[in-house]
Structures are given as C-alpha cells and as structure tokens.
Please model this.
Amino acid sequence: MNKNIDKVLHGVILFIVAFGIVTSATGLFYTNGGAAYNFLNQYGDTVKVYGNGLYAHDSYFMAPIFRGTDFTILFFAIPTLIIALVRDVQKNKLKNRLFLISVLSIFTYYSASIAFGVTYNVLHLIYIALFSTSLFGLIISISSISKEQVAKSIGNKLPSKGIYVFLTLVGASLFVAWLPDIISSLVSGHSLQLIEVYTTQITYVLDMGVLAPSSFICILLLKRQDGMGYILLDILLTLCCFVGILLPIQTVFQVLASISLPIGAVITKVVTFVVLAFFALYYNSKVLKSHTEL
Model:
C-alpha cells in the first residue's frame, strides 16, 4: 500500500469523523422548543410535521428515525471508524484496510441518506461534505489494495454455499421490504403511503438500486474468486451488522415518540434484518479468521 495515498486517506477519514460528529450530535441533541403541526402536502394529504430541532420540517414519522440513526452513528459507527483508523495507522495490514473499507461504507450509506433524504436544513453543506468525503474515502481505500492479494489471501477458506444463500436472502429481503409499497402505490394511482413531505424515499433507491444488486453481483464475483467479490462481501456483511443495530434503535425512538407501528411492518422491516444481522456477524467472523496471517 502506498504511504502517500495512506496519508491522504487517513486525512479524509479525520474529516469524516468531524463531519459525522457534527451531523449526528446536532440531529440528536439540538432542540428549539418547537411543536408538531399539520401540513397539507403536494398530494393533498394532511401530514404531521415534527416541528422541533434540526428535523423541524421533516415528518413526525421520519424525524424519530433520523434521530435514531444519529444515535447509532454517534455512539456506534464513529467509535468503530476511529478504531478502524487507529488500527490501519498502527499496522499496515490488508485485514485492517479491509475493515476500514467496510466501516467507510457505513458512512457512505448514512451520508447519502441524509444528503438526499432529509428536508433541507442548516447542516445541508455539512451533509454534502460528509457525503463527498465518505464516497471518495471509500473509493481511495478500495483502490489502495491489490484485488489479487485479497483473493489469494482468502481463497477457498470461506463457507461458500452458506454465504451464497445469505447474500441471496439479503438481496431478496430488500425487495420484499420495499417493493410492495411501490407496487401498491402504482396500482392505486396514489403516492407512496409514507411519502409525506418528501418527493421520494432514498432508502428504496439505495436498498433496491444499490445494495440488493450488489448482493447478487457479489455472488458472481465470489464464484470467480475475484478479489473485488471479497471486498464487496466485507462491505455487505458490515452494513448488514450495522443495520441490525440501527433498526431496533430507530424503532425505540419511534415508540418513544408515540408512533404506532403495524406488526407486519415491524416483522418485514425490522425483525427480518435483525436476524440477517446475526448471520452477517457469524460470516464476518469467518472472514476475519481468514485474514489472521495478513
């Protein structure tokens, strides 16, 4: 790995940590004493708006989700990124760089979600900066390692059949979670049920447009023992573990806000991914063990 590239990467990560702390801490703790109010959206539906803090102009349903995400980023993701950075600086090993890449993917997903999904607020420029540094940090970190070395280091050490089944379930679950909402909207000729004050749902775009296809692409690359397949596997496993932490916390924040959640939605959108997170954790341990000599 190139030392000059490493310095640039480590510098970018420091900015990610700083921007991440600002966005998550502000979203979680800032309050202006406002109160919820009703708003007539562009589809003619009455929507309850949160009215308080950074997410004052977001819907009452989504604002607790954003605050739950902020809690998870501030108390789980940022400490993990700092640990990954320290390990990468101290020991220039492939397994440490792969760990750093997988954690950076969390911030790329998070920053894209808030930059495109949160109603415009005073932190919009910070959102853009976080998205930019996270995206380019991820690109730089992936380009800094040899894909051939990654493939050679792992080889046939992983339980391929189990991983293929897991990746298939992940890809399918993302479609099962979100596609029915869109199909029912198209059939009824009305907007998405929870479109509220937004023009689209960024989660649908990222999950069905990026993560689900990545799961199936990862299977093809792993079958060819392509190094990029193992990198993608690391990313998907880490993201899945993170989601397993994130979704219950988001649910707690919604419950604390007295939001009623249908049991069907809880099962398809929370329980399923928590279960998958346990399998992701298991396979992640297998991947880590395969890198013990690197």
Remarks:
- The beta strands are 37-40, 46-49.
- The chain has one domain: 3-290.
